[in-house]
Amino acid sequence: MIRNKTYKINNCKFNNDKLNCTILNGGKYECQPDKNFPDICIESSKGIYKTKESCINDCETKYINQQLKEINIRHETMKFYLFIKDIIKNENMEVFVWGGNALGLKVLQMIHQKYPDDDKKFEKAFNEFLKLDLIKDWDFRSITKKEITPEYRSQLDKISKKYKLVPRAKTFILYQTPKPIEIDDKAMFEISIVDSNLYSDLEIPLTSMRVKVTEYNLKYIFMFAKSFFSYKLKNEQFDFSIMRRMLDKIKVSIFPHKDGLYDITDDFDKGNINDNLIDFIKDFSKNDINLTQFIITMLKDTSRIFYRLFEKNIPKTNKIKHFLEDDLKWKGEIKWLFDSKKIENILKDFIKDLCKKILSIYKNNYNKSKSNESALLDVQNFMKGVSFKRVQIDYDNLFTDESKKLIKIMFNDLVKEVGKNNILNINIEKNTKSKDVSLIDFIKFLINKELFN
């Protein structure tokens, strides 16, 4: 009997009556996910992949999982992965990465497109890109085809609980982990669920870019998150090899747009704004449907016009435009950025014209009724559908003197005409069904904040 002797036949070893075939398929490359990404697939006698590309396609998932483990975020990302996979498959939802991070990925793709084969120029442009600070926390938005009733919300809460996610809002659906990983004092990951995707619920193309998420590309989103988190947390340098690969794998989509506004065809959305006010907006915009939609969107939540537009989106637009035109030397047309100065002037003119309009409505009614209450109710009805709730909530914490100045311009003439005390003394029964703040109550709030002193 022959002992301890090994015979090799093709790719198999025959050892002590046992056949051990380690490479049955003529493999050449081995996956080593703990290496740097360019080195995860190497030629090896232990290889099971025929080509390097097939090895990378399979090994990148193991590599990404390894990266998530090293920075201690894999446990949290797995909860979101399983929840998102569930609601896509079983609730027929569409899920997107939405907003600022999608915008950041869009700009990154433009850098990648500009310098596809020049790593030095790519890195130089990327370092300038980092100064824009576009990529922060990762917001997922899910769109359901079902109406969100209390019963359906309860059902979604049960699904989220299965994956150890918890609800974080009362008036809308938002899920996070119980103790979320934070970046810049915000949860690194969260997911909202909405049942509409109307233009009046959006802001501008700049802020509504999105990346459609699937169970297959979600790993790239988490790897992007890991890369920027590691950079902020430990100043860890970026691996441009996998970054470039991932930028080729995802698609950033933008709603139809023109000159930085939504390009409206047959899907104009009045957003429950009063028809008389819409007619006034159309007259102001000279029936420019794109501009009309933009102003309606700003009025549906007036924090967009008084705070977000002037304090955030116009400065962000200017920074991105400067980067693309001056640093990146981008030659193509960028239709998703508006002319900041033009938009600023248009909206300031609109605020002034609206100020004159509501004063005119008040005077016309008062001349007939001699009643402040009746005349102000007429103004309030004209402004039906315009929301001031978010402005009131964030007034003390977010609104700058410039933002408050715009609010004052809109209502100052009306307050002067009626008189602050007369407004404060008006007592109108509140609509208990409304979740919003009435115009009259909002003006009272501003008076109490001494805006008109």
* pLDDT averaged residue by residue: 91
Low-confidence stretches: 1-24
Side-by-side strand order of the widest sheet: 8-9-12-7-6-13-14
**Radius of gyration, whole Å:** 29 Å
Integer count of domains:
3
Q: Count every helix, treating DSSP H or I runs of 4 or more residues as helices.
A: 16
Give a quick account of the main beta sheet: strands, pairing sense, barrel closure: 7 strands, mixed
Quickly give the structural class.
alpha+beta
Shape: elongated
The oligomeric state is single chain
Q: How many angstroms separate the termini? A: 107 Å
What's the total count of β strands? 16
The amount of helix comes to 40-55%
What fraction of the residues are assigned to beta strands by DSSP? 5-15%
Using brief descriptors, characterize the structure shown.
single chain, 453 residues, alpha+beta, 3 domains, seven-stranded mixed sheet, 16 strands
Fold blueprint:
Elements: E1 6-9, E2 12-15, E3 18-21, E4 29-31, E5 41-43, H1 52-70, H2 74-90, E6 94-98, H3 100-114, H4 119-130, E7 138-143, H5 150-162, E8 166-167, E9 173-176, E10 182-183, E11 186-187, E12 189-194, E13 210-212, H6 218-234, H7 240-249, E14 252-253, E15 257-258, E16 261-262, H8 275-284, H9 289-300, H10 303-327, H11 340-369, H12 372-382, H13 389-398, H14 401-418, H15 420-424, H16 439-448
Parallel strand pairs: 7-12
Antiparallel strand pairs: 1-2, 2-3, 4-5, 6-7, 6-13, 8-9, 9-12, 10-11, 13-14, 15-16
Helix pairs in contact: 1-6, 3-4, 8-9, 10-14, 11-12, 11-14
